[in-house]
Amino acid sequence: MAVICQVEALTKIYPKAKRPANDGLTFSIQQGEVFGLLGPNGAGKSTLVGQLAGLVRPTSGSIHLFDIDVIQQPEAAAEYVAIQPQNSVALWDLTPQEAIYQTGRLRGMSHAAARQQTVALLEELGMTAFANRHVRTLSGGQRRLVLLGVAFIGDRPIQIFDEPTNDLDPEARRRVWDRLTRLSRSGTTIILVTHNVLEAEQVIGRVGIVNEGRLLALGTPGELKARVDQRVRLDLAPKGDPEAVRPLLSELGEAVARPGGRWTVYCERAHTRATIDTLLARLTIDGLDDFRILTPSLEDVYLELSGGVQLG
Amino acid sequence: MAEPAVILHTDEVIAALPYPRTRRTLRWHLAQFARVVTVSLLEFRTAWPYLIVFGCLVPLGLIFWMSRMGGEFSRERAVFILGGNLVTSIVYGPVIGMVGKIGWGKEHRTFDYWAGLPLPKLAWVLATVTVYLLLALPSVAIIFGVGALTLGIPLVNGLALIPLIPLGTLSMVGLGAFLGILAPNGQTASLFGNAMIGVVTFLTPTLLPLEQMPTVMQWIARVLPMTYAADAFRLALSGELGAPLALDIGILVLSSLGFLWVLSKRLDFRG
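YS: structure for the whole thing
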């Protein structure tokens, strides 16, 4: 696959900041892939995507989109990149329909094409009911959908989404993930900043884990998950006294008590089936308030790499 | 051996541009300018009545108050009052609005939206100034109409104002934008906007003739575009279309170009 974005030794230091927001980042993104960026608040993810979109001026390093040096020609980024920021008060006095349509026109679409895609996006993202209300009067989730519509229109070959599903209800989240999946299949390169790791894992091709401005790890979810404890976790909440099940769980594997009367039992992959059979035979499914089988996730990768700091 | 921190995929070629970059012709610039004007006008849909009211309120009050102050009331005095209050109207509406737009825009990062579009910064600047000019016109027209009728100035004298209003507004709104750039945040921009009320009232010859102002204040007045706008408006209202008016126009043109140049250089869309 061809490289669409090359980042080398990228550093951003804001005035009066104690540490760099981005510190010597080097990576590349393939054309058509979904590239995820994970990390805690303040890790430098938004600064990084802002630089990729030509909105933030780097302190040093280089960014190439296609063969264009974006630092020398930041205006070129706007021709090929669309970004959905976490928040924006721009266009708050327009309606969603106007905001999306006018952005399409500013991206060079004809009146007919912009109008057609605006109608399609309003429908697809479930915005028809509030398409003619002023953005400032909408809820946080509805505003997020407007920002997404504004990013989608014009079909830029590189689309960046910064927390696209925050504030969204489950139905809207599903619509957004469906749209991102379709975009990816159509060859659009997607850069995704998200805390919603479980949902994002469904679409991400490669992921970079960022903290304190540095890239802690980069690879496919499979490559990264291979680095962490491969044991399967059985997460359960027994009914009654949680301490009563300690002897049984200790027999099955490494058992760790969790807050709220929950337990996590770590078992080797090869023994998963037998462990679950034994557990359910002894406790019965009716003896459990909750029971989950968990395999290593990107969040585990992140927690291991960052020394336990939660994503958020 | 420890695993590398980053797994790089290095066996790639650079992707080809999916389409050529836009040719930035004059026609393209004009089209983008028109689209920003459209968006900006839509943004003012709910605020424009207030902008017009605030642009009229104080100047109309001042016209009423000044026309009833003691002393001999001459045509010269009537022209002085009306010309000064036309400037006051533009400052109270579009100029203060522009200070806030840039200052709060920086704080809320609304420029990220514009910077993320294929849009020359100068096109945004010109479009925004144009919108403020358009928004200034109703209150200027109301003040001229009411003022001329109240003060007994022939309405026909207003024809000469038509080309001067855009020029005066451009130079003053340019000053407002410059102050917005200087403001580190929205709150300070609001304070700068409020300060403009004091500046136009006490540091420019809108209410008091220049020669009656203290010397230091005269120096300050001579570097502010409001002084030349007020003088130009008064000369036009009194039908004096000679060299003094040409000098005022020259200064307003230069200050407008200067502010546009500073804006296109100093207004930073990128953080």
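YS: worth flagging: The longest strand of chain A covers residues 3-12.
IM: good catch. Also Chain A is about 35% helix and 25% strand.
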